[in-house]
Amino acid sequence: MWDADGALDIYLAWLLQNQFAFDLKKPRVTWADSSASSAVPREWEVWLDRFQSSADAGSFHDFALSGGWDPLHLSGHLGETGSPDVNSRLFRDGISKTSGAFITSTMDAWYTDLSAKATDLKMIGTHSWKVDVFVKPVGFLGTFRRSAQTGLWFAGRHRYHSAGN
Q1: Which superkingdom (predicted)?
Q2: Helix (H) and strand (E) counts for the chain?
């Protein structure tokens, strides 16, 4: 259950405070580009100010908001660092014109592999491609679409994806 231990607020505060920015269009991103960050919307600045002045802001277990920009070294885990899977495959559905399946064996480079293999999947009218992603050691990750607005693959509602990019 999300936030059952109460750690989600301090993690969100850490992300807002440091404003990590990763270019998912570049393969093998391993470090945040601080110059690529943009202003946080005012409502989140207000939330962060309130949270930082609350009793909850000190620390959570070993997670502290102070003590360097990345005290838990989490930023290195926010981008993909794995090697591409040369055996990954993208299959097009023979019935639908905009759906398919992507199968790979590597969890730490699936997004980069999907992006590389799907460069020729063009939108048909207003319909974006829907690709079911499977990582052999893990299983089904979900159905991903490529945003016409951002060019990135995402799962879920587009309004949430576009707000974060």
Answers
A1: Bacteria
A2: 4, 7
Q: How many CB atoms lie within 10 A of CB 129?
A: 21
Claim: this prediction has a pTM higher than 0.70: no
How far, in Å, CA of 144 to CA of 86, rounded?
21
Structure token pair of residue 158: 């587009």
Place of tokens 């974060």: 164
Pair type for strands 63-64 and 89-92: unpaired
Enumerate the H helices of the chain as residue ranges. Answer: 8-18, 42-52, 110-117, 158-163
- Per-residue pLDDT at 129: 84
Residue 103: what pLDDT?
A: 96
Can you read off the two tokens belonging to residue 135? 């990582």
Question: How far apart, in whole angstroms, are the C-alpha atoms of residue 135 and residue 105?
Answer: 5
Query: What residue segments make up the domains of the chain, in order of their start?
Result: 8-77, 89-163
End-to-end CA separation in angstroms for the chain:
26
Q: Nearest Cα to 44, choosing from 163, 158, 149?
A: 163
